Amino acid sequence: MAERKRALTCHWVLTTLFVVALVSGACSSDRDNPEKQVRSLLAQGETAAEQKQAGTLRQMISEKYSDSQGQDKKAIESTLRYYLLRHQTIHLFTRIREIAFPAPDLAHVDMMVAMAGQPIANVGELERLQADLHRFEINLVREQGEWKVLRAEWRRAEIGDFL
């Protein structure tokens, strides 16, 4: 039971950090369009997560990070290291449901993330690959011109959520 809980937390951490990677450089080239900033970094963030670039991903978490599980930035970094060591390969498949900006320096992302040990080409492969499916609600903050994850919550998802 403890191992299962730790594995679920690891999935959550990796996926959260993936989302952070998506938005981390958003301030550089498209300063006037935050939504375009978030969307333009999807491929870059996926690459960082799949290539296990832990240092890059860790830099994308706010020092003020906290979540409903009582985790802070240090706890997330520790879990991330464990997850990256435990999994030989990581492949992600994402669907953004919504990006909202309640304030100029705050963003809320609602997205679906599937994780598997093999590449996921489309929604039809999710069941065959037995991918772990999650829905994430992530709050981002722009700190000194860079987007960082401030809070993230997740729950299990169904294949239909990806359609």
Description of the molecule:
With 163 residues, the chain is of the alpha+beta class. It has one domain: Roll (Nuclear Transport Factor 2, Chain: A). Helices cover 37% and strands 29% of the residues. The chain is built from 6 helices and 4 strands; from the N terminus they run αααααββαββ. It has helices at residues 2-23, 34-40, 42-50, 54-58, 73-86, 125-128; strands spanning 91-103, 106-116, 132-143, 146-156. A 4-stranded antiparallel sheet has the order 1-2-3-4, covered by helices on one side. A hairpin with a 2-residue loop joins strand 1 and strand 2 (106-116). Helix 1 (2-23) runs antiparallel to helix 3 and helix 1 crosses helix 5 (73-86). It starts with a helix and ends in a 7-residue tail after the last strand.
> Largest sheet, order of strands side by side?
1-2-3-4
Q: What is the CATH C-level name?
A: Alpha Beta
Specify the helix fraction band: 25-40%
Please state the oligomeric state of the protein chains shown. Answer: single chain
The shape is: globular
Level-2 CATH architecture: Roll
- The helix tally amounts to 6
Structural class: alpha+beta
The helix-strand sequence is: HHHHHEEHEE
- Distance linking N and C termini: 31 Å
How many beta-strand segments?
4
The average pLDDT is 80
Please report which band the strand proportion falls in: under 5%, 5-15%, 15-25%, 25-35%, 35-45% or over 45%: 25-35%
The largest sheet, given as strand count, sense and whether it forms a barrel, is: 4 strands, antiparallel
CA-based gyration radius: 15 Å
What is the number of domains? Answer: 1
CATH-derived topology: Nuclear Transport Factor 2, Chain: A
